[in-house]
# Entry
Amino acid sequence: MKKIIITFFVLGCCMMAKAQSDVFTATLLHGNDVSVFIGINALVEAHEAAQDDDVISLSSGTFSPTTITKSVTIYGAGFEKNTDAGTDVTQINNNLNIGVADATLSNVHIEGVKINGVITLVEGATVEGLVVKRCYLTKGFTHSANTKNTLIQECIFTGGFTNNETTQATVAENLSINNCFISGNVNTFGASSSVVVDHSIVTGFAGGYLWKNCILPYRAIGAYADWGAFEGNGGTTGATVINCIVTILYSDAAKNNNVFTDCYLGVDDMFSDSPGTRNYTYSSVRTYELKNKEEWLGNDNTEVGIRGGNGWSKAPSIPVIKSLSLGVDGNDLKVTYEAEVR
# Structure
């Protein structure tokens, strides 16, 4: 409980500091110790000072990128400004790298940040337990490292997944992509990968993985969309597609080399917020509500697409500080606050 209270206090101070000035802050929480770094390099400095399991909270504003080499959690204020949701914009002004070459990095958590570039997993690294949640990646995700137990949830990708490994496709073991909007391809993982994409919209190639409750508007699925199959690097062949909306199948081969179960095939006009058009572009004001949301249901009996399943939110899962006051009682700092869970 003490750590939670201190976290509330830290977040509140970050928010107040940004509201009162144009100073960007990164607040490092290490146990019960709090350190504050100021300016565009605040994230870099906070990460340098951090130890494994520390929490870095970023105010709104723009920060220089760094390479994450420690098991830290990074919270931002959000990737879009929205008064109702209580979010502002925390952005990293270039690519964010994660991993250590020839070593394993575990349990990195990134949430509520706009990354003006890509997240890049360092070549030769192994990354385990990575969580990327409620982030906006303007150029997608580059995986040049093998991964294990990765969760990507409620994110926006302008650009899909790419693989910079020159010799063979990297392996993603137990990769879960949930409630995401990905304007690009998800097809670049190696043959022994286990990838599950659930309640997402993916506008590019859909690789030979398990797809559930998704919207797949592009024409190619499975063996004819997989990076490894194209490049001769042992890519997966064939996809399992369950309760998905698929707008078009390019060929008989696409039908025959994949398994479709309870899918909605040939659906073109699906969104109530953009009727009569094949509009899959991302917009901050779009809802992506389905026209027939009570008919197009997933295998969990919720709406197919990003609104079903666990739902879709842009607000980081940190509490909102509604009010905060500080005072001194003898030798003690007295903190009074009102917090609200998003």
Q: What stands out?
A: The helical segments are 2-20, 42-49, 227-231, 252-256. The chain has four helices and 32 strands. The CA atoms of residues 6 and 82 lie 26 Å apart. The first helix runs from residue 2 to 20.
